[in-house]
Amino acid sequence: MANNETQQDQFSSGPLPIVLLHRLPSFKHFPDPPFRDLLYSNFNLLDPHDSPHEPYDSFLTRHAHSITALVTVGPTPVTDEFLQRLPCLKLVVGTSAGVDHIDLPACRSRGITVTNASSAFSEDVADYAVGLLIDVLRRISAADRFVRGRMWPFEKNHPLGFKLSGKRVGIVGLGSIGSEVAKRLSAFDCSIAYTSRNKKPSVPFPFHANVLDLATNSDILVLCCALTEKTHHIVNKNVMLALGKQGVIINIGRGSLIDEKELVQCLIQGEIGGAGLDVFEDEPNVPKELCGLDNVVLSPHCAVMTPEAFEALRDLIVANLKAFFSNKPLLSVFSSSYE
């Protein structure tokens, strides 16, 4: 949080608090007019890419000692080298649920707090995860292709799908998104279990200390955790084999949570039953082998893409910044390897 107590009055009098807008040159500067207006009405936004007559490095150097907070747009990298140029920085406000583009150890060593947007996206992403799961189990996308391809008059019977109710669902990362997934799947009478960095005392679901144990006792894995060094390839071949030949993996986290090469081979060889994937290791490049599998549902990293989610994101970003400059608790601090 900001250390200067006089900042408490910045929203009632005096100059607007300074916030750096950190974005790649190719990223648009907040195309949503209400969002842009809300930010400009509450903060003095500094955008180096909006100063065409001053080089980026010069702009950053000139303002470095006045910047205590920044908003990083999308997956714009926040590296150790970049942080070294902002000696007074105390807050990084993320606009995505994932934080793999932010050097968390460097932030931690400098006393910089990081917030993410998972709480703004949690309901919509959870809806999408359940949608992917139902699609994989009931073969909805495959059935759509079957009809559109004019195969119905000739083959008559589409392959059977599988029931969702009663399935054992293991959730990897029971944070805001994982909790919403659990709530939705509980309504389907699924048996919920989870793994996370620590057991959550207030959660009624069984806890497993690692993903391998969770997979062994699940029919379905839903990946909801952030991508960090500890969660990279957290789902490897051993986990997939433990899940079993009818097991299903849903990934709405980050592509590199799964060893994608092993996933492809397990799907081709029938070692697992199916997958619903909204994220991939090398986006937008998707392994071509996945495109020919009817037991796989593919999606272009769009689980968060609803107007309601972006409205919630707008409110969360502004609320975190206002809280910071008013010495109040932040709303969405990112603090763990996986929830």
Describe the protein in words.
With 339 residues, the protein is an alpha/beta fold. It folds into 2 domains: 132 residues, 3-Layer(aba) Sandwich (Rossmann fold), CATH 3.40.50; 178 residues, Rossmann fold, CATH 3.40.50. Strands 7-6-8-9-10-11 form a 6-stranded parallel sheet. A 5-stranded parallel sheet has the order 2-1-3-4-5. The longest helix has 21 residues. It is elongated, with a radius of gyration of 22 Å. The N terminus is likely disordered.
Key phrases:
single chain, 339 residues, alpha/beta, Rossmann fold, 6-stranded parallel β-sheet, 5-stranded parallel β-sheet, 11 strands, 34% helix, elongated, disordered N terminus
Write the layout of secondary structure elements.
Blueprint: E1 18-22, H1 33-42, E2 44-46, H2 56-63, E3 69-72, H3 80-84, E4 91-94, H4 104-109, E5 113-115, H5 118-138, H6 140-148, H7 152-155, E6 168-172, H8 176-186, E7 191-195, H9 211-216, E8 220-223, H10 237-243, E9 248-251, H11 260-268, E10 274-277, E11 296-298, H12 307-325
Parallel strand pairs: 1-2, 1-3, 3-4, 4-5, 6-7, 6-8, 8-9, 9-10, 10-11
Kindly report the oligomeric state of this protein.
single chain
Total beta strands:
11
Rg for CA atoms: 22 Å
For the record, the CATH class of the largest domain is Alpha Beta
Q: Mind summarizing the main beta sheet?
A: 6 strands, parallel
Assign an overall shape: elongated
Question: In terms of per-residue confidence, which ranges show pLDDT below 50 for 5 or more consecutive residues?
Answer: 1-10
**How much helicity do the residues have?**
25-40%
What's the total helix number?
Answer: 12
What's the rounded overall pLDDT mean?
Answer: 92
Write down the secondary-structure element order. Answer: EHEHEHEHEHHHEHEHEHEHEEH
Number of domains: 2
Query: How large is the share of residues in beta strands?
Result: 5-15%
- Secondary-structure-derived class: alpha/beta
* Relevant CATH superfamily of the largest domain: NAD(P)-binding Rossmann-like Domain
